[in-house]
């Protein structure tokens, strides 16, 4: 009997091959595993003890400290999704394998989908231990936010992917000299989206910019649940609506930069 799997599901096979390649890289390298766990763990420990200190030392600061710690945890979802996608791309660049991948029939958007899947796997691997740690050591259980928590996490991950695709376009056009900028991408939004404080304390002109960013509504929704015990599905829907505009835009910019670099034979030559 003839095996038609390759003919029927070429995209699925290529995606599977890319994902398995990166999983093998992780499985065979403890430094790569340590890198995934290190920064979120450090952040949870530092901010968790700060949360305890504020709750114990300052009267009436418990809710504020709790919302601050919740902001830190949710911010990690955006940061880990962005860096997880970035590392999957840079692994191919560092090993000079990017050009080899694209002598195959694989289109760049298919490759982007594989990177998104790897980003999700990295986020789960990094954040599940952190959520357990936050509960065991600091008595903070993020899933107590209810079903909104899954929406919060997904929306923040989408923002992280958008930021990363924009940064990958920058790397494709200007080479690894701008790699340092890509590592900081998610932190560029941090002062504007109200992760640690309400956006109402920002200057009025900055608030207009903040309202255009999907994470702003996620952190407002989190504070509404933690401090007022009110679920705001409207904020989650606005966040998703904005992400459904920005994520395709980020993919388009990445695709354009990729095609321009490939036309200039830059996949092998300029990423140095």
Explain the layout of strands and helices:
Blueprint: H1 5-8, H2 10-27, H3 30-57, H4 62-94, H5 98-101, H6 108-138, H7 148-174, H8 179-183, H9 185-189, H10 204-210, H11 214-228, H12 233-263
Task: Kindly list the characteristics that best describe this protein.
76% helix, globular
Number of helices: 12
Amount of beta strand? under 5%
Q: Which parts are unreliable, with pLDDT below 50 for 5 consecutive residues or more? A: 1-5
Number of domains: 1
Assembly status: single chain
DSSP strand tally: 0
If you average the pLDDT, what whole number results? Answer: 86
Biggest sheet, in brief? none
Find the structural class using helix and strand composition: mainly alpha
Overall 3D shape: globular
Taking all Cα atoms into account, the compactness measure Rg is 20 Å
**Estimated helix fraction:** over 70%
Task: Report the order of strands and helices.
Answer: HHHHHHHHHHHH
Distance between the termini: 47 Å
């Amino acid at each position: 009997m003839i095996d038609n799997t390759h003919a029927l599901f070429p995209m699925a096979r290529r995606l599977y091959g890319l994902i398995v390649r990166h999983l093998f890289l992780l499985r065979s390298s403890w430094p790569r595993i340590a890198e995934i766990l290190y920064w979120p763990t450090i952040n949870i420990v530092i901010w968790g003890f700060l949360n305890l200190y504020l709750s114990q030392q300052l009267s009436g600061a418990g809710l504020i400290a709790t919302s601050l710690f919740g902001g830190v945890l949710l911010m990690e979802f955006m940061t880990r999704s962005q860096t997880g996608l970035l590392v999957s791309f840079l692994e191919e660049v560092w090993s000079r394998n990017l050009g080899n991948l694209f002598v195959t029939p694989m289109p760049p958007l298919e490759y982007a989908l594989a990177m998104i899947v790897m980003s999700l796997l990295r986020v789960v691997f990094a954040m599940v231990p952190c959520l357990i740690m936050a509960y065991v050591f600091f008595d903070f259980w993020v899933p107590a936010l209810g079903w909104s928590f899954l929406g919060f996490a997904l929306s923040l991950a989408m923002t992280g992917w958008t930021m990363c695709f924009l940064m990958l376009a920058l790397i494709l056009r200007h080479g690894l000299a701008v790699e340092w900028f890509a590592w900081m991408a998610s932190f560029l939004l941090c002062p504007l989206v109200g992760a640690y404080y309400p956006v109402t304390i920002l200057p009025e002109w900055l608030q207009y910019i903040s309202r255009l960013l999907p994470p702003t509504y996620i952190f407002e929704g989190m504070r509404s649940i933690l401090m007022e015990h009110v679920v705001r599905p409207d904020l989650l829907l606005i966040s998703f609506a904005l992400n459904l505009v920005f994520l395709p835009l980020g993919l388009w910019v990445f695709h354009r930069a990729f095609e321009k670099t490939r036309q200039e034979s830059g996949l092998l030559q300029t990423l140095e």
